[in-house]
C-alpha cells in the first residue's frame, strides 16, 4: 500500500463527511477521497433541508411529532417498499443528528416548514438554504480532527485479502473527471474498513435508462456531473446486492427554463408548494394536491402533454406573502425563470391561461382555506392562507431526475450485504444515497439529509468497532 488508514471514506457528501467526522471523533485515522475537483457532491448543491422528528423548532411551534409518525409518512410515500428496520434507524436518529450538526456550526432557520408528503411541519433548513451550510462546517470539523482529504481521487476497484475482506482501494490520483485514463494508480489500505458514501447515478443516462427506459436524455437532472454508477458497479462486482435500482426520483419542483437544480427548486419548495397553487395553463385549474409526495406530484405534472405528447408546462404561483421565504426569488427573476405579474389578469396573459378560469380557481382555493378543507385534492391546510392580492410570482414546471432510491442492500450496522449469502461483505460499509431500500418507491423531501447524516455516522460507529488488521 502507498498509504494506510484505519478507515477510508469514499465520497464527501452528507453521508461521507458525517462518517468521517464521527470516526475521527472516536479516534480513528481517517481518509476521505472524492473523485471530483470539489468536495461535497450533490449534498452541497441541494436545498439543505432536513426532516427531523421531535426537533426543538417543532416544540417551540407547538407541533407534536414522533419518530413513529415520520416512519409512517415515509412508508406511505415509499408505497410500503421500504426497509423498515433501516427506516426506523434513520428517523430515530434525526433529532440527535440535527443537534450534532449544530454543534459543528450548522445554523438552522428559526422556523419549521411543511414539505409535501409529511403529515405535519418537520423540516429544518440551513440558514443558507443550501447543503453547503452542512458540508462546510463538517469539512472544517474533519480537518480540525485530523482527517486527511484527497480530491480528484477516484476509487476504481476494491482490494480484498485471501478471505475476501475489503482491505483497501485502488484509486486514480490526480483524476480529471470524466477522463477515464487520467491520473495515476495508488493503493490505499484500510485497516478497519471502507465506507462507501458515493451517492446515486442520476446523471448516468445509459445506466438510469437500463433501469427505467423513459428516463432519456430529454430529462434534465439536478445532480452534479459526477453522479454516475461507477462506484455502484464496483460494489456489485465484489458481490453487493443492488436493490430498487429502478426506483428513481423525479423532483417535481424544477423548471424547464434553466439547467439543473437552479432557482425554481428552492422557490417552488418554499413558496409555490407550501403557499401557492399549480395550474394547467389550458384550463387554469389545479390538477393535484400540491403537498402530496414527490412521486405523486412529478407523475401528475408529467401527464400534462399535448396531442403530440409534448410537455405542456404547468404554472406554479404564489403572491408576495407566499414568496417571502424563497431565497432564490431574486435570482429567479433575474434569469427570467420566475416571472412577476401585478394582477391575476397579467399573470394569465403572461402564460396564455384563460383569465376568468384562473380567477375562479383562485377564488375556489381561498374558499377551501376559509372552510379548512381542500375539496378538490385533500391538501393539508395547516399553514395555508388565502391568495388575495398580488404581486404574483410564477414559474413553469417540469420534473428532473433527482435521486436514486435504489443502491446496495445494507444491514442496520451499515454493512454491505452479499448477493448470495446475504451476509456482510467483510470490511465494506455503505451510507447515504449509495444504499437502497430506506425510501422504497419514493423518498420524501428533506429525508436525504436525514438519511445521509444518520447512516453516515452509523456506518462510522460500526467500522470503528471492527478489528484492525495489520496491513
Ligand atoms: P450523499 O448525499 O449520499 O452523501 P453525494 O452525492 O452528496 O451523496 O456525495 C457522493 C460523493 O461521492 C460525490 O462527491 C462523488 O463525487 C463521490 N464519488 C462517487 N463515486 C466515487 C468514486 N468512484 N471515487 C471517489 N468519489 C466518488
The small molecules bound here are: adenosine-5'-diphosphate
Q: How many beta strands in the DSSP annotation?
A: 18
**Relative strand content:** 15-25%
Query: What percentage of residues falls in helices of 4 or more residues?
Result: 25-40%
Organism: Ferrimonas sediminicola
Domain FAD-dependent oxidoreductase 2 FAD-binding: 6-448
Pfam family, one: FAD_binding_2
Family: Belongs to the FAD-dependent oxidoreductase 2 family. FRD/SDH subfamily.
What does this structure look like?
It is built from 13 helices and 18 strands. It has 471 residues and is of the alpha+beta class. The strands form five sheets. Strands 1, 2, 5, 6, 7, 8, 17 and 18 form an eight-stranded mixed sheet that branches. It has a four-stranded antiparallel sheet with strand order 11-12-14-13, with helices on both faces. A two-stranded antiparallel sheet has the order 3-4. Strand 17 and strand 18 form a beta hairpin. The chain starts with a strand and ends in a 6-residue tail after the last helix. The model has no long low-confidence stretch (mean pLDDT 97). The structure holds adenosine-5'-diphosphate. Adenosine-5'-diphosphate binds next to helix 1, strand 6, helix 7 and helix 13. Adenosine-5'-diphosphate binds at residues 10-16, 33-36, 41-43, 154-155, 197-199, 226, 230-231, 432-434, 448, 452.
Amino acid at each position: 500500500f502507498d498509504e494506510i488508514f484505519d478507515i477510508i471514506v469514499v465520497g464527501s457528501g452528507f453521508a461521507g463527511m458525517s462518517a468521517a467526522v464521527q470516526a475521527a471523533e472516536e479516534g480513528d485515522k481517517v481518509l476521505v477521497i472524492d473523485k471530483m475537483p470539489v468536495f461535497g457532491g450533490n449534498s452541497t448543491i441541494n436545498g439543505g433541508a432536513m426532516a427531523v422528528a421531535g426537533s426543538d423548532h417543532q416544540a417551540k411551534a407547538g407541533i407534536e411529532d414522533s419518530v413513529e409518525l415520520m416512519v409512517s409518512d415515509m412508508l406511505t410515500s415509499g408505497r410500503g417498499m421500504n426497509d423498515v428496520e433501516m427506516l426506523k434507524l434513520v428517523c430515530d436518529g434525526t433529532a440527535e443528528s440535527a443537534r450534532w450538526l449544530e454543534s459543528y456550526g450548522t445554523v438552522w432557520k428559526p422556523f419549521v416548514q411543511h414539505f409535501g408528503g409529511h403529515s405535519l411541519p418537520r423540516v429544518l433548513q440551513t440558514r443558507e438554504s443550501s447543503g453547503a451550510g452542512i458540508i462546510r462546517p463538517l469539512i472544517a470539523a474533519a480537518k480540525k480532527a485530523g482527517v486527511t482529504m484527497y480530491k480528484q481521487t477516484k476509487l476504481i476497484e476494491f482490494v480484498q485479502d485471501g478471505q475476501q475482506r475489503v482491505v483497501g482501494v485502488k484509486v486514480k490520483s490526480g483524476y480529471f473527471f470524466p477522463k477515464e485514463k487520467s491520473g495515476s494508480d495508488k493503493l490505499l489500505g484500510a485497516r478497519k474498513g471502507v465506507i462507501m458514501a458515493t451517492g446515486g447515478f442520476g446523471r448516468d443516462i445509459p445506466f438510469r435508462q437500463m433501469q427505467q427506459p423513459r428516463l432519456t436524455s430529454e430529462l434534465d437532472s439536478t445532480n452534479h456531473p459526477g453522479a454516475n454508477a461507477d462506484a455502484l458497479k464496483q460494489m456489485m462486482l465484489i458481490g453487493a446486492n443492488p436493490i430498487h435500482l429502478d426506483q428513481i426520483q423525479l423532483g417535481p419542483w424544477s423548471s424547464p427554463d434553466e439547467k439543473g437544480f437552479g432557482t425554481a427548486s428552492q422557490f417552488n419548495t418554499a413558496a409555490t408548494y407550501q403557499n401557492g397553487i399549480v395550474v394547467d395553463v389550458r384550463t387554469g385549474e389545479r390538477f393535484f394536491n400540491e403537498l402530496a409526495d414527490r412521486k405523486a406530484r412529478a407523475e401528475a405534472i408529467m401527464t400534462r402533454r399535448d396531442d403530440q405528447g409534448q410537455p405542456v408546462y404547468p404554472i406554479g404561483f404564489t403572491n408576495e406573502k407566499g414568496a417571502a421565504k424563497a431565497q432564490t426569488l431574486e435570482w429567479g427573476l433575474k434569469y427570467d425563470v420566475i416571472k412577476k405579474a401585478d394582477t391575476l389578469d397579467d399573470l394569465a396573459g403572461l402564460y396564455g391561461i384563460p383569465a376568468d378560469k384562473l380567477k375562479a380557481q383562485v377564488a375556489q382555493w381561498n374558499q377551501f382555506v376559509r372552510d379548512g378543507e381542500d375539496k378538490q385534492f385533500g391538501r393539508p391546510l395547516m399553514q395555508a392562507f388565502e391568495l388575495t392580492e398580488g404581486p404574483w410570482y410564477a414559474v413553469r414546471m417540469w420534473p428532473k431526475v433527482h435521486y436514486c432510491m435504489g443502491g446496495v442492500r445494507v444491514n442496520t450496522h451499515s454493512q454491505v450485504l452479499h448477493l448470495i449469502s446475504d451476509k456482510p461483505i467483510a470490511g465494506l460499509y455503505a451510507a447515504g444515497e449509495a444504499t437502497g431500500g430506506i425510501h422504497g418507491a419514493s423518498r420524501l423531501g428533506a429525508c436525504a439529509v436525514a438519511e445521509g447524516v444518520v447512516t453516515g455516522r452509523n456506518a462510522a460507529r460500526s467500522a470503528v468497532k471492527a478489528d484492525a488488521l495489520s496491513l
